[in-house]
Amino acid sequence: MTEARYPFTAIVGMDDLRLGLLLNAVSPAVGGVLVRGEKGTAKSTMVRALAGLLPSIATVPGCRFSCDPAAPDPHCPDGPHQGAPAAERPSFLVELPVGVTEDRVVGSLDLERALAEGVQAYEPGLLAKAHRGVLYIDEVNLLQDHLVDLLLDAAAMGRSYVEREGVSVRHAARFLLVGTMNPEEGELRPQLLDRFGLTVEIAATRDPDERAEVVRRRLGYDANPAGFAARWDERERELAERITAARELLPSVQLSDLALRQITAVCAAFEVDGLRADIVMARTAVALAAWAGRTEVREEDVRTAARLALPHRRRRNPFDAPGLDEEQLDRTLAEHRQPEDGPTDGPEDDGPDGGGPDGDRPDGGGPDGGGGGAPEPGEPNAPSAEASSDESPAPPRQRPGGARESAPVAADQPYRTRLFKVDGTGRGAQGRRSPAETDAGHTIRARRPRGRLSRLHLSATLRAAAPHQVARGRAGRALVLRRDDLREQVRRGRESNLVLFVVDASGSMAARQRMTAVKGAVLSLLMDAYQRRDKVGLVTFRGAGAELALPPTSSVEVGAARLEQLPTGGRTPLEAGLLRAHEVLRVERLRDPDRRPLLVLVTDGRATGGKDALPRARRAAGLLAAQGVAAVVLDCESGPVRLGLARELAAHLNGDAVSLDELRAEGVASLVREARTTTTRKAA
After folding, report:
1. What are phi and psi of 510, to 5 degrees?
2. Where are the compositionally biased (Gly residues) regions (predicted)?
3. pLDDT (tens digit, 9 = 90+) per residue, 317-364?
4. φ, ψ for residue 296 (rounded to 5)?
5. Can you give the pLDDT at residue 391?
6. Phi, psi (5° rounding) for residue 170?
7. Do 121 and 78 touch, CB atoms closer than 8 A?
């Protein structure tokens, strides 16, 4: 017997999330909803509860693609269905696991039968099962990018395509797309964020009474799921009926020219890219009107639509938090509001300024602030020989142990950096940094299948089977194949890596001008790691030892926040920093042996703690080199007299040394251009 689901109407609070899900239930064309929030906030519970409110659907009996008998898909692989009978069934909720493969998502062809028998044997995937239902992706930010792209393309087009060795299958795939994520575990790329229609930020309530009610209801459900659900049946039924009524009213809702101008004016005022935001806002405003039981869109609908559709489209920098300035929103709406006594071009806007449909919109707005434009690339304030003599650190403060530290300084503006990668070919998670064997990329060779065959190498298979055709008694045109003949493609792509930053935060680095440039360089490398889908970690060393300031994580944003608050001062325990990095990488190698590390050491090469401090640090570097850890040393030494200690340390790490000036991608390009110009002049 299936356990009763937790009722949607029994969930306490989270009004924005409730509204976003219901609007998508009324109009799936809104484009789905992305739920961002901390762990333990009932994100998954509410999404799963929504499926029970959706109206049942009529399907063709025996169709694996849930075709509607009234309008069957002409391309359905199980069709044609003209004149087929109808069968009622509930809408499905299909959950997509994080480790899912592309074949499991879109389905796959039985390549062995296709070659040996010439039949198109297609096994549907999760997209086919989700058709006309809900597709739920928990932890969508941990899903591989190419799978997220594939899902969002299917959601936008309403159709899934499968292409295998010249054989094509297509079928309808229209579903309500819901993704949940914890931002602490990493962000989605802005391009992917834009593909979700709405976004909602949620957090656990801080009100003791509300928290108590949440616990009370959960304990009641755990004690007797069926009895608890029965107490909410009436409210669930009323809400389901309202969804059905809003769906029926939706085609009758009118979007006036006045409301449309307000929508486009708001999108222009917030400088969102493209026109997808305008379209999503228009669809959301229409759904809001239908949900409120109205046939005209009002200003309150436009305002609520903006709060739900625009915050995640305001990001310009990977480290910007999604948000919306509601004061700016109100000003823009007021500027394009029809005067009460003036001529009208469309229906009069008599709704209140703000508020929600019949009390379903919560009071208050979305998250404040955020957005912000992308920072213009700027030169780091690298100390020159003339300036180094009068650099002055920030006012020091005394720590409990007697060490003096400087207050954190702001980072310089980030810029595009050189690409650093790990040598050799890996097998890690797909990304954009180092060469690897991946599911995507160009084919480099063929091999015998490892497990189920999914990427047939046709020419290699034919070459393997050809010498045995006479012995196998081939009589007609059909090729006689055996399992041993099959070959699969080996593809070369790129993987993501673990980028471990080891940052010297000691007194030798504490000069304000230099630390601003160093933080800007590390922030730039963090942005590069974000774009290449790496995991990052942060080890800092100063004073008496080293600290793991950020355990390896996919959340580059957390790394940027920890870097911003990094204080400096004290002695330089370089050996401790390298040994801590060695331990962190050892543990991570056990957790994820396929993810190769890249060590980025940020230091001027100095070490304190006795006469043998430098030799000890070099021995620690040798431990990392012996483990084959790829390393880059960011040389932060400045001043008229330079000892070259950082470059010597890079040699012990078997890595490269790069100065702050050499880190910039445009700096390297300009050096190449200068060299080419000089060579051309000499030749002339």
Report:
1. -80, -10
2. 364-375
3. 656 666 677 888 888 888 887 654 444 444 444 443 434 434 443 343
4. -135, 145
5. 41
6. -140, 150
7. no
3-state secondary structure 611-653: CCHHHHHHHHHHHHHHCCCEEEEEECCCCCCCCCHHHHHHHHC
Element housing 94 (H / E): strand 93-96
Exposure string (b/e) for 152-189, b if CB count within 10 Å is 16 or more?
A: bebbeeebbbbebeeeebebbbbbbbbbbbbbeebbbb
Cβ neighbours for 445, distance < 8 A, ≥ 6 positions apart = 490
Query: How confident is the model at residue 355, as a pLDDT?
Result: 41
CB 250 within 8 A of CB 286: yes
Helix H, strand E, coil C: the string for 198-264 is EEEEECCCCCHHHHHHHHHHHHHHHHCHHHHHHCCHHHHHHHHHHHHHHHHHHHHCECCHHHHHHHH
Say how many CA atoms lie within 13 Å of 423 toward its Cβ: 8
Handedness of CA 577, 579, 584, 589 (dihedral sign): positive
Nearest to 381 by CA among 373, 372, 391: 391
Distance CA(651)–CA(567), nearest Å, equals: 29
Give the amino acid at 244: T
Q: What is the pLDDT of residues 384-419, one digit of tens each?
A: 333 333 344 444 445 444 445 566 777 778 888 888
Containing 59, the helix (H) or strand (E) segment is strand 57-59
Residues noted as catalytic: 276
The C-alpha angle 33, 34, 40, rounded to 5 degrees, equals 120
Q: Beta-carbon neighbour count of residue 61 at 10 Å? A: 11
List pLDDT tens digits, range 295-314: 999 999 999 999 999 888 87
Q: Which of 142-151, 337-346, 548-557, 564-573 has the lowest mean pLDDT?
A: 337-346
**C-alpha–C-alpha distance, residues 594 and 582, integer Å:** 17
Alpha helices in 296-345 (DSSP H): 299-309, 326-335
The string over 579-607, giving b where at least 16 C-beta atoms fall within 10 Å of a residue's C-beta and e elsewhere, is: bbbbebbeebbeeeeebbbbbbbbbbbbb
- Strand 176-181 and strand 134-138: the pairing is parallel
Per the CB < 8 A criterion, the answer to whether 197 and 284 are in contact is yes
